[in-house]
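Submission checklist for the structure archive. All mandatory fields must be present; incomplete records are returned to the submitter.

[x] Identifier: Activator of Hsp90 ATPase AHSA1-like N-terminal domain-containing protein
[x] Organism: Dryococelus australis
[x] Residue count: 340
[x] Sequence attached
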Amino acid sequence: MAKWGEGDPRWIVEERPDATNVNNWHWTEKNACAWSIEKLKELLTDLRIESDLAKCKVTLVDKCDGEAVVNNRKGKLIFFYEWDLQLKWKGRITNGDGTVIEGTAHVPNLSEENNISDLDVAISVSDSSSTADILKDFMRITGKETIQAQLGKYISALKEEFSQGMILPRKWEDGKEVKSGIAKSEFNNQQALMNCSKNDVKSQILRTSMLNLRQIFQCTAEEFYKALTIPEMVHVFTCGPVKMDVKAGGIFEMFGGNIHGTFVELVPNKKIVQRWRLKSWPEEHFSTVTFTIKQKEDHTEVSIVQSGIPQSELDVTRENWDRYYWESIKRKFGFGSFIV
């Protein structure tokens, strides 16, 4: 039999009056559910998501189902959390007509199994209009990033808050005390970052930007609208085969398929909204292009807003609009114009 104060340090209890979980050998658990719900609501409610394009705000954490617990086993902290979140948001286009669109953001699986950068945030809107489509795209990209960042703060706060008191002081040989702290487990942020693969880096969120263009054409609004929606006329200024089903949901292809997408909204002689992409862009990534056509006394004014352009493609996209659309339309149809 070992003498008092000697032997396996896991069994030395003389300096722990309550003799609780000596040297952190036994499994202990702390419930973090109530704290997590309050923290998630604090981080997400009234969250503002704004840019030059749009101003949106999370108005309510409508659903927060799940659990969070922290375990200590042999001095090692294990964080377990799994949440299903439903958020309500509303927003408007910054320089629009003030129309407010409402929608939801669904986070189906906030858990330790998923990296924050890979976290799914599904965006929906309660309206079907060009404004709603623009805001949906804005929330799907910029809103998703902002929500992911806030949820990352929740995870960091969870680990900081619930590491306190979970690992108790213990004594090792030679009388040197090991102080409490967070164990270096596979769940620590630092270790997780070290374990990131190259595929994780490639899967980071695509950074996008937008274009705001304005042109004046010496033609009627009807003539300009036809130039973009009658396949035979589109063929003239693109100088190549055209596929075009001019209706909401109809597809279009131009320039040998290098530009393709679908029509979202068509208001004859006034507005055209398209989901639009270049073939060279990341797979399945579309921008939203809105043509606003205004008939003036002796000319037609056209405003073009394009959101969701990959940042690396911004300058090329601007140049292509000038070269392959505006210059060609003016030259082929005689819509001589001046730029404002």
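[x] Structure attached
Curator remark: Helices lie at 33-44, 130-161, 189-194, 198-202, 221-229, 231-238, 314-333. The chain is about 25% helix and 35% strand.
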